[in-house]
Structure formats: C-alpha cells, structure tokens
Amino acid sequence: MKNHRLPLIAALLMLGAALPVQAFDLVGAWQAARDYNADFAAARAQRDAGQEKAVQGRSQLLPQASLSGNYNYNNPLQPKTTQDAYGRPVSDMHYENHGYSVNMQQPLFDVGKYTGYKKGKIGTELADTTFDAAEQQLILDISQAYFDVLRAQDTLAATRASKKTYQNLLEQAKTAFEVGTATITDTHEAQAGYDGAVAQEISDANNLELAQNNLKRLTGLEPAGIQTVRDQLPLVPPKPAGLDAWVDMAQRNSLKIKGAEQNLQLAEQTITEKRGNHLPTVNLTAGYSDNISNQPGTLPSAQHTRGSQVGVTVTLPLFAGGGINSQVREAVALRDAARDQLESTRRQVKEDVRKAFLGVTNGAALVRAQQQLLVSAKSKVESTRLGKEVGIRTSIDLLQAEQAYYTALTTLANAKYSYLTARLALAQSAGQLQPDTLGEVNQLIVR
C-alpha cells in the first residue's frame, strides 16, 4: 500500500516545487512583517496593555463601593441557663446571626491618588510613543534587510562574473603554455586569481544566504521573490534642504525625545506622589448594614438591626521611620537621571540626524560619481579588449580592466543601498518615517 503512495507523494512534491514564488517589493515586505514579526506583535500587545494605565489611574479618583455579607453559627460547648432582659430563665444553646453591609468611599483629598491618575495618563501616552517608535524601527529594519539581500545578490553576481573572467584567462594561459607562447608563471598567476575568485564566491554566497535568512525571519516571505531596484535611481535631495531645519524638526518630532520627555514627566509626578505622603488624606464614607440575630437573651428590638452612616475620614501621617523622606530623595535622584537621559537623547538624535543627512546628500553625490566611474570602467574594458586584439594590450591588462569594472559594479550597488537606507534613517530621526514614506520610496526605486 505504501508503494502505491510514493508516486503520488513525488508528484505533489514536484507540483509544490513548480509553484511560482510570490513576488514582493519593499512595501510588501513591510506589510508581511506587520502580521508575521513576533517582536512587532509583542510591541502591539505592550501598547494595548499601556492603554489601561489611564483607566487604572482614573479609577482611583472614582467612588469605591463594596458589598459584604456574614453568617455565624454559635454553639457553646458548655450550655448554661441565664436570664433574659425580663428576668426569665433562658438556656444558652446554639444561635445564629447573619447580615450584610454596603460601603462606599470617595476620595476628597489624596495627593497619591491624584498623581496616580496623572501618571496613568502619561503612561498611556508613553505606551503609544513606544509603539510608534517600534513601528518606525521595524520599517527601517525591513528596509535594511531588503537592501542587504539585494546588495549580497549584486556582489555575488559580480564575483561570479569575475571568476568567469579568471577561468577564461586560466584556460588561455594553459593553452599558451602548451604551444610555448607563455611561461608557466602566467599559468600560476591565472590559477591564483581563479582560486581567489572561487574563495570569494563561497564567502559571498554565504553572505547572501545569511541576508536571505534574516529577511525571511522578519517577514516570513521567501527571499527568492524579492524585486530588484532600478539601475538609475532618482537621487532626490532631502526636503527641507538644510541640516538645521532637519535638526529642528527632529527636536520637535523625534519619538526618542518624546519618550524621554514622558519618562521625565513620570519621574516628576513620582516626586509629587512621595511628597504627598506627608499630607493628610480625606475620604467621604457612607454605608448601610442589615443584621439579624436570634441570640437568646437579647431584646426583640435588638434581634434585627438596620442602619446607615455617612461621614468624613481624615488620616494624618505622623511618623514613618524616615521612610517617606528617603522615598522623596530617591524620586528626586531618579528625576535628575531622567532629565540627564533626556539631554543625552537630544544630543544623540542631533548626531543621528547629521549622520543621516550627510548620508543622503553625500550619498547622492557618491552614487553619481560611481555611476560615472562605471561608465568609464566599461569604456576601459572595451578599449583594452580592442587593444589586445591589435596586440598593444595583454591579457593581464584586459583582466585588470575587467576586475576594475566588476569592482565598480559592487561599489555602485553599495552606494545605492546606503543612500536609500540613509533616506529612511533621516526620516526616522526626525520622527517622519511612516508607511506612506516607505511607499513613496518604493515607487521611486522598484522596477
């Protein structure tokens, strides 16, 4: 029976192998990562959890109501005879009592609960900021992984072309040696060049596999479906064009700075909360109770009691062993740390903006220069090949020209992908990296 299944299994495997791989571009990779990436899913869950902080903080200022009930069965171990309120003998046997009560408490003055309310609001805002930062970071990570695959593909293609050139030269050197027109040194040089190209091909293939695995880990997509970038990139200058304008934009909109500011606000509220422990708390209390007891010897009027009460409770702390003062000093120190961290974040963002801005402006100039270098390298290959045919250039000259051309190809690819990454990094540093931004870049670069 199993032998009959083998052809069917083989046919299914061949059909699966023949199915086309889903093609995807930069936006497609991002959309897949939003649903697939576990880190981003965790960030989304953290954001949802942070939304509850505002609700929890607000609840401390609202009335707190509770319902309680009780039931007791009393069974004396040594019953005795007593007299009731009228002087009649009563046997002290078992009896029951039960009841319930409803209580409500409303804070009137409580610094700790009020600061808890404000901290809850800030905590929810911080959760939103953290999630937005995670979203921007995922966009940048996906773009970097996408470009890393393309860079590795271009590098491997250039290396394989270089290896083919070395292989042709090696064959020519061997033939020339056999017919006596070249020395064994030429063959050894060609063999060394070919062996080096083989080793470089193995290294580049390994780098490509690593880059593909990283992209698949982030998106769940098969890297074979990746779409390449057009040869001639539109080198759009950053808008605004000045570095100072980008720095100002980043100081206003950077999510890193915004998160550090919110952490400072939380630290300041904590100081207020700890200092408030020195102050009194005032609460409005109200309640209603209903109790029934059949205890022998009690008056009938006392067997069923009901009542309500309304009052104000004031609690003033007198001495806490120095703990409150210590908590205040701790909160002040943490506030100072948060303030210093905010300043450090501002400086780091400024440096990130400068680095990314130069990566865009200088990167565009570098791409143009490398494009021109590639044209020159290609012209040199053609002229050297022609010179070899007429006898004024050697095979070594042609090999060197072709190697320079392949090097120019690889350098141009690196310059293109570095420029594109810098554009996205600049938008992230200024707090402007959104899915729409990624879509605009995608339309410019994808074939």
TrEMBL record:
<feature type="coiled-coil region">
    <location>
        <begin position="328"/>
        <end position="355"/>
    </location>
</feature>
<protein>
    <submittedName>
        <fullName>TolC family outer membrane protein</fullName>
    </submittedName>
</protein>
<feature type="coiled-coil region">
    <location>
        <begin position="250"/>
        <end position="277"/>
    </location>
</feature>
<keyword id="KW-0472">Membrane</keyword>
<keyword id="KW-0175">Coiled coil</keyword>
<keyword id="KW-0813">Transport</keyword>
<keyword id="KW-1134">Transmembrane beta strand</keyword>
<dbReference type="InterPro" id="IPR003423">
    <property type="entry name" value="OMP_efflux"/>
</dbReference>
<feature type="signal peptide">
    <location>
        <begin position="1"/>
        <end position="23"/>
    </location>
</feature>
<keyword id="KW-0812">Transmembrane</keyword>
<dbReference type="Pfam" id="PF02321">
    <property type="entry name" value="OEP"/>
</dbReference>
<keyword id="KW-0998">Cell outer membrane</keyword>
<dbReference type="InterPro" id="IPR010130">
    <property type="entry name" value="T1SS_OMP_TolC"/>
</dbReference>
<keyword id="KW-0732">Signal</keyword>
<comment type="similarity">
    <text>Belongs to the outer membrane factor (OMF) (TC 1.B.17) family.</text>
</comment>
<dbReference type="InterPro" id="IPR051906">
    <property type="entry name" value="TolC-like"/>
</dbReference>
